[in-house]
Amino acid sequence: MSIVLLLAPFSIALGLMALGAFWWTLKANQYDDPVGDAERILIDDPEDRPTGT
Amino acid sequence: MAVTALAVDSPATIAPRGHLDLLVPGARCAACMGKIERSLLALPDVTSARLNLTNRKLSVDFRRATFNSDLVVTTLARLGYPSTIYDPAAAVAAHDAEGRQLILAMAVAAFGSMNAMMFSVPLWAGLFGQELGPATASLMMWFSGAVGAPCAIFAGIPFFRSAWRSLKAGRANMDVPISVGVLLTLAISVSETVLGGRDAYFDAAVTLLFLLLIGRWLDHQLRARARSAAGDLLALQAIVATRLDASHRFVETSIGEIAPGDVLLVRPGDRIPVDCRVEDGVSNIDNSLLTGETLPVTVGPGQICRAGALSLTGVLRVTAVARAEDSALAAIARLVEAGAQSRSKYVRMADKAAAIYVPVVHTAAALTFAGGWALGLEPREALIRAVAVLIITCPCALGLAVPAVQITASARLFRRGILVKSGAALERLAEIDHVIFDKTGVLTAGRPRLVDPIAAAVAMAAPLARASRHPLALALAAEAGDGPVADAVTETHGQGLEGRINGRRARLGRATYLDLKAHAGSETELWFGFDGDTRIRFSFSDRLRPDARATVDALRARGLSVEILSGDVPAAVAAVAEATGIARWRAGVSPQDKVTAIEKETRAGRKVLMVGDGLNDTAALAKAHAAIAPGTALDASQNAADLVFTGDSLSAVIAAIDMARSARLRAQENFGFAALYNAVAAPTAMLGLINPFLAALAMSGSSLVVTLNALRTGARR
Question: Degrees (nearest 5) of the Cα angle B410, B415, B421?
Fold first, then answer.
């Protein structure tokens, strides 16, 4: 039963990592232009990339 | 790749000195995006150009502070994309901090509900006779609390804030019971956990917040989309004017800085920025959005132009006679503001429901506690039951009932090209019983069209007509289609054109321009003739929208009365009234009279829908119970209206009304369901029959039912 004491915090840590990743995407303006980002992938320009600013 | 990224990101290499935001409404696809960004990056000094395809906003960084922003606009124009420079203040305000806070709260609540649930499942299993030692149960409760409580507090911040604001204002909105419920639930759960008690509701509290945040976010999205549309319009209104500066150069200036006496330049296609007097040049001025007059007026030196009118043909040099805030335009803007204020007093459906719900539920919870204690329960048990009443009746379904319906309705309307600016607009639209139409640009197309064209005559005059930008000539050219253009054309402003067609000299214009003294000459006709030959007359009128009659009939079939209020001359209004079968009409109505007419109807207890497009309608649009404007309307009118429809079809008005009524019906069903649910759940909780598992099940279940019902809004049967 003591394995729960290890596994429960571990699973919460995993969840927190996912939450942190989401927070990062939000901070990096990745939801500002969903239409444009979807279309941008079609532009054949090697220098073109999301700038995240 | 990494090296490139570093070079681009490094502040030393770019260090943008200036920034420019533009609205590019024509950009629609990846190709536009690539073309625009590449062309702008090729300009000297431009360090970054990025187009946001979602809100059609282009942001450009450049190296020098003295960068000529005109270069960007002209480059875009050359590519075929008209653009408008954003007012920087409006662009900053557009940043959506509230939306971010809501999304983050929603993410935290989602994390919290899933992870607290993980520890709740063993506890629920214990409720159903599965083996669960008291030590393990206590451990699970501690874990559940460690995850759930902080998440619930963070996710609840938007509700706590709103509840606090509402309490400070001396009212109780829906967020008050939510906040009280969540905080009490958390408090009782913590005390139960610490005391080793029976039930903890951490997962219920955080799941409740998660579901409510979905509703809150949907509502926010709806408002944000409308706000950004309105923000675009506001930014567009803050247009720049071209002013002659001290060094005798024309420079772009913000309208607010123009003082009487300033010399301005108005190009064809520009709106007149402030009330002004023409110094030099002749142009046809389109007053249709100001007064509702269909036909353009020719102005020349010495004449006064009103702010908001559109200059069509010539370049004008004008002297400002009023500040922007003293112009005729601003007077109308003040009327609009007054109207919008009266409308903001409207009480939304959800708030009406909250007004009933809050006292009932809180009384029930208080009675449970007092009654339970009086009937011999322990104070702790009585308190747990009272809290259970608050949790189980927490307005989860109520919080979703209206936003889910309204977002469905507005999404369906959006697909039909109708923009809904707020959920409250749909609620108001569902209540209307009287419709007032403006004539020009609403029942009619707002453009002159040739009456009874004779093909041979049109073909003869067309080469000259194609050479002019005058609206009547444009209408004639449109009738003739593509073809040759006359040579050696000279245009006399306000009179007509002269040119050579197949070697013969010909004139097109007013009767007097063709030396026809016998005819008085009217604004709605053009004369054409070859030198020394017979004269041909073309007359023009505004064309009715093809489905105007059908729309009026459909409105009547829905039990609505219809009326026309127009600023145009009686004869023109009478003709349209006749053609659409509207018996009630008034012509020559001023903007103030329109407002008065609406106030009169309102006092008579009727709810008025105003459909209008002109500046002369804006005050009426803002004053009416609900308002719709066509996409061709002036920005100010679109701003004052609740709904804006694009496309030529007037039947959008019918679609919007039907959708609004359908949305009201679904919302009422949802409220009915929520009431029924509470009528069953509250007594159950009072009797102490609710456990955390049932609470979680009941709450998610009721939210699901409400959401599914909302999806039926406006669906074809």
Answer: 35
Query: Between B34, B48, B50, which is nearest A43 by CB?
Result: B34
Rounded Cα distance between B394 and B703, Å, is 11
| CB-based contact B646:B638 (threshold 8 Å) | no
**pTM for the whole thing?**
0.69
Residues 6 or more apart whose CB falls under 8 angstroms from that of B634 comprise B289, B308, B613, B614, B615, B618
By CA distance, what is B118's nearest residue in A?
A: A8
Q: Quick check: is B438 catalytic?
A: yes
Region of B222 (left: φ > 0; alpha: ψ -120 to 50; beta: rest) is: alpha
Sequence letter at residue A18: A
Helix, strand, coil proportions of chain A in percent (round to 5)?
60, 0, 40
CA B587 to chain centre: 29
3-state DSSP call for residue A22? helix
Judge whether B647 and B659 are in contact, CB under 8 Å: no
- Model confidence pLDDT, tens digit, residues B99-123: 888 889 999 999 999 999 888 888 8
Does A33 sit within 8 Å of B52, measured CB to CB?
yes
- Per-residue pLDDT, averaged over B328-352, amounts to 63
Query: What ipTM was estimated for this complex?
Result: 0.77
Angle (nearest 5°) at CA A22 between B115 and B702? 50
Which bin fits B536, alpha (ψ -120 to 50), beta or left (φ > 0)? beta
User: Which positions in chain B touch A34 (Cβ < 8 Å)?
Assistant: 54
Q: Are B381 and B688 in contact (CB under 8 A)?
A: yes
Compute the distance between CA of residue B691 and CA of residue B385 in angstroms, rounded to an integer.
10
Decide if A12 and B115 are in contact by the 8 Å CB cutoff.
yes
Run of H or E including B509 = strand B504-509
CB-based contact, A1 to chain B, within 8 Å: yes
Asked if residues B464 and B501 have their Cβ atoms less than 8 Å apart, the reply is yes
Which residue among A8, A47, A51 sits closest to B143, beta carbon to beta carbon?
Answer: A8
Which A residues 3-42 touch B at CB under 8 Å?
A: 4, 8, 11-12, 15-16, 18-19, 22-23, 26, 31-36, 39-40, 42
Tokens describing residue B638:
């679109």
CB-CB under 8 Å, B33 with A43: yes
Report the SS3 class of residue B165: helix
Which pLDDT tens digit goes with each residue over B518-561?
555 455 678 888 887 778 888 887 788 888 899 999 999 999 99
**Residue B258 tokens, joined:** 């123009």
Q: Report chain B residues whose CB lies below 8 A from the CB of A8.
A: 118-119, 143
Check if the beta carbon of residue B175 is closer than 8 Å to that of residue B351.
no
Nearest Cα to Cα of residue B277 among B318, B219, B217:
B318
Record the tokens describing residue B226, joined without a space.
């409308």
B477: tokens are: 């050219």
Q: Are B658 and B652 in contact (CB under 8 A)?
A: no
Q: Which of A1, A8, A32 sits opposite B52 (nearest CB)?
A: A32
pLDDT tens for each residue of B160-199: 998 898 888 877 777 887 888 889 889 989 998 998 877 7
Note whether B9 contacts A51, CB cutoff 8 Å. yes
Burial class (CB in 10 A: 0-12, 13-18, 19+), B543: middle
